[in-house]
Design a protein that fits this description.
Layout lengths: L1 E3 L12 H12 L3 H21 L3 E9 L7 E2 L8 E2 L10 E9 L6 H9 L1 H6 L3 H18 L1 H12 L2 H14 L6 H16 L4 H14 L9 H15 L12 H27 L9 E3 L7 H24 L21 H4 L1 H20 L5 H13 L2 H19 L2 H14 L5 H16 L5 H18 L4 H12 L12 H11 L5 H29 L13
Antiparallel strand pairs: 1-6, 2-5, 3-4
C-alpha cells in the first residue's frame, strides 16, 4: 500500500552531462500553463504574418469517401490526433483528392471568431480529460485498497529480476490495443513496481512510457489503426496501378519490432537510465511502496481471493454482453467484435470497472475498506491529485486547436514532402530521408493518420516506381511515427506523466521527463531504422506473402 515519507527532503547534486543539461534547461522553462500561453501568442502572430505572405501548399491527400474533405480529431486518441473516419475502419473507403491548403490568420474576422467561440468547446472536446478521470477512478480505488500493491508484489515475486523491465515494457507495447489504458494505468504501475523492489521509480515510469508511446505503431496483434493506414496506402498505390495490400502486410515486421524494441528499451533502462538516476532515496512526502506491505499475509490472501472473484464477475458480465449472438457489445449491423465496435469503444470502461470492482472486493476482504465512504474517499483523493494537470490540459487544448486551425502543420508537412520528393537519390537514402522527415514532423503533428494521409499519395507511387512495395513504405512510416511521441510537448498525456513523476521526485518537471526519455527515443529510432534497413536488404517478407520489393 502506498505511504509517504516524513523527514527532511534529500538534497541532490545537480546532474552533469548532456542529459543533466537537458533536464536543467527543461525544468527552467516557464510553467507549462505559461509556456503554452506563450506558444498560443506565437501561433497567432505567425499565422498573421504567413497569411499576409499568402503562404500555401497544394497537395494530394487521402480522405474518406463520404467525408469529401479531411476532418481532424485531435482529442479522441491518446497521443495522437487522427482523421475522423466512418463507423468501421476495417471497411472504410478512401480516395485521393488535390487540395490547396492556405495559412489562415487568427488575426482576422474568422480567426478572432474562432478564438472566442471555441474556447469552451476546445476544452470540452479534449477527450483526454474525461478519459483520465474515468481510468483513474478504478485505479485510485485499487491503489487505496491495497490491491495494486499486492499485485505489484506478486508480479515482482513471480518475474525474474532480469525480466521485470522487459515484461513491463512489452506489456506497454501491447497496451496500445486498449488505447489510453497504457498511459493511465501501466505507467504508474511500472513506477510503483520499481519502487517496491528498491529501484528508482522514475526508471520504471520511463520504461512504461517507452513501451506505450515510443513503440506505439507496432504490436503483436492487429489494431483498428492498422486497417485505416493500410486502406490509405491502397488508395495511394492505386495511383500507380499497384494491387491492394491487406491489414497483415506488415505483421511479421510488427511482431519482430515489438519484441526487439522492448529488449532495446530494457537495455536502455538498465544500462543508461538507472545508473544515471542512481539509488533511490525517498524524499519527504514522496510515495513509498513497501516491499513487504503493511497488510497481514492472511488478510492479503483473503482480499486477493475476493478481488479475483470480483474480477471474474466483471469478466463474466462482459463475456455475456459480447460473445452471445446479438449481444449488445457486438456491431449491430455486422456482428463483429473487433474493429470500430461497441466492444472496442468500451475497453477503457471495462478496464476501469475491473479495477474498481476488484479494488472494492480486495478492500472488503483485506479489511482496508470498511464501507462505501472509504470507496468515495479513495476516488475523491485520486481526483484531487489531478487538479494541476487539468489546468495544463486547458491550455494545451487551446494551443492544439488554434495551431491546427491555421493549417500550419499541414503546410509544413506538404513543403517537406515536396522537398523530399524532388531529392534525386536512391531507394535506401530516400527511405531514410522519409523516416527523418516524419520524425521531425511528429514534434508538431503527433498524429498517425494526418501525416500518412498527406505523405502516402506522394511517396507510395514514387517508391513503387523505384521498385519498393507499398508495404515497405508503410513499415518505414511505422518506424518514424513512434520514437519521439515520448518527447513532443504536444503529447496530451505529458502533464499526467509529470504528475506521476512528482509523486516520487517533487522537483520533477517537463525537463526531467524529456531527459529520461531522450535515450529511449534515440536508441529506439536508431535500432528500429537499422532493423528496417536490414529487413529491406535481406528481402525478408514484411507479412505473409508481402516481400519488401515490387514483384
Amino acid at each position: 500500500m502506498a505511504t509517504t515519507t516524513s523527514g527532511d527532503a534529500v538534497q541532490q547534486q545537480p546532474e552533469k552531462g548532456l542529459l543533466g543539461a537537458v533536464e536543467r534547461i527543461g525544468n527552467k522553462v516557464p510553467h507549462p500553463v505559461l509556456m503554452f500561453g506563450y506558444l498560443i501568442i506565437l501561433v497567432i502572430v505567425l499565422s498573421w504574418g504567413l497569411s499576409l505572405l499568402n503562404v500555401s501548399v497544394t497537395e494530394q491527400v487521402a480522405v474518406p469517401v463520404e467525408a469529401g474533405a479531411p476532418q481532424y480529431d485531435y482529442y479522441e486518441d491518446t497521443t495522437q490526433p487522427g482523421l475522423i473516419g466512418g463507423q468501421d475502419p476495417y471497411e472504410e473507403d478512401w480516395t485521393i483528392v488535390e487540395q490547396v491548403i492556405p495559412i489562415k490568420s487568427l488575426i482576422s474576422i474568422e480567426g478572432i471568431r474562432f478564438i472566442f467561440s471555441t474556447f469552451v468547446s476546445n476544452f470540452a472536446g479534449f477527450g483526454v480529460i474525461a478519459v483520465t478521470f474515468i481510468a483513474m477512478m478504478g485505479a485510485g480505488v485499487a491503489e487505496e485498497s491495497g490491491l495494486l500493491g499486492s499485485l505489484i508484489r506478486k508480479l515482482v515475486g513471480a518475474a525474474p529480476k532480469w525480466a521485470l523491465t522487459y515484461i513491463l515494457i512489452l506489456v506497454g507495447v501491447v497496451s496500445s490495443v486498449a488505447s489510453d489504458a497504457g498511459y493511465l494505468i501501466l505507467i504508474p504501475l511500472a513506477a510503483a513496481a520499481f519502487a517496491s523492489v528498491g529501484r528508482h521509480p522514475l526508471a520504471g515510469l520511463a520504461s512504461g512510457f517507452a513501451g506505450v508511446a515510443a513503440i506505439f505503431m507496432v504490436n503483436i496483434s492487429l489494431t483498428p489503426i492498422d486497417a485505416m493506414i493500410t486502406e490509405i496506402a491502397n488508395e495511394a498505390g492505386a495511383l500507380a496501378g499497384s494491387p491492394p495490400i491487406t491489414i497483415v502486410a506488415n505483421y511479421f515486421f510488427m511482431v519482430a519490432s515489438s519484441l526487439i524494441l522492448a529488449f532495446v528499451a530494457a537495455v536502455v533502462t538498465e544500462r543508461l537510465v538507472e545508473p544515471r538516476l542512481g539509488p533511490w532515496t525517498p524524499e519527504a512526502g514522496a510515495v513509498v511502496h513497501s516491499d513487504a506491505g503493511d497488510i497481514p499475509a492472511d488478510a492479503d490472501a483473503k482480499g486477493s481471493r475476493m478481488a479475483l472473484f470480483g474480477f471474474l464477475a466483471v469478466m463474466l458480465i462482459v463475456a455475456l454482453a459480447t460473445f452471445l449472438p446479438g449481444a449488445p457489445l457486438r456491431d449491430p449491423e455486422t456482428g463483429d467484435i473487433i474493429g470500430n465496435t461497441p466492444f472496442m469503444d468500451s475497453l477503457l470502461f471495462i478496464i476501469m470497472l475491473a479495477f474498481l470492482v476488484s479494488g472494492v472486493c480486495y478492500g472488503v476482504g483485506a479489511g482496508t475498506m470498511k464501507g462505501s465512504n472509504d470507496v468515495i474517499k479513495a476516488i475523491t483523493k485520486t481526483f484531487a491529485g489531478l487538479g494541476g494537470m487539468v489546468l495544463m490540459l486547458l491550455m494545451i487544448a487551446q494551443f492544439i486547436a488554434y495551431f491546427n486551425w491555421t493549417n500550419m502543420p499541414r503546410v509544413i508537412a506538404g513543403a517537406l514532402a515536396e522537398l523530399l520528393e524532388q531529392a534525386n537519390i536512391g531507394a535506401i537514402p530516400l527511405l531514410i530521408g522519409f523516416i527523418l522527415v516524419i520524425v521531425l514532423l511528429d514534434f508538431i503533428m503527433p498524429g498517425s493518420l494526418p501525416k500518412w494521409a498527406i505523405f502516402a499519395p506522394i511517396f507510395v507511387p514514387l517508391f513503387i516506381r523505384l521498385g519498393v512495395a507499398p508495404q515497405t513504405l508503410l513499415a518505414a512510416y511505422r518506424v518514424a511515427d513512434s520514437p519521439v511521441n515520448a518527447l513532443t510537448p504536444l503529447m496530451v498525456y505529458l502533464p499526467f506523466i509529470v504528475t506521476i513523476a512528482q509523486r516520487y521526485t517533487k522537483s520533477a518537471g517537463i525537463g526531467t521527463v524529456v531527459a529520461l526519455m531522450l535515450p529511449y527515443s534515440i536508441a529506439i529510432l536508431v535500432a528500429w531504422t537499422l532493423l528496417f534497413i536490414a529487413w529491406f536488404l535481406l528481402g525478408i517478407p514484411l507479412g505473409p506473402g508481402y516481400p519488401p520489393y515490387v514483384p
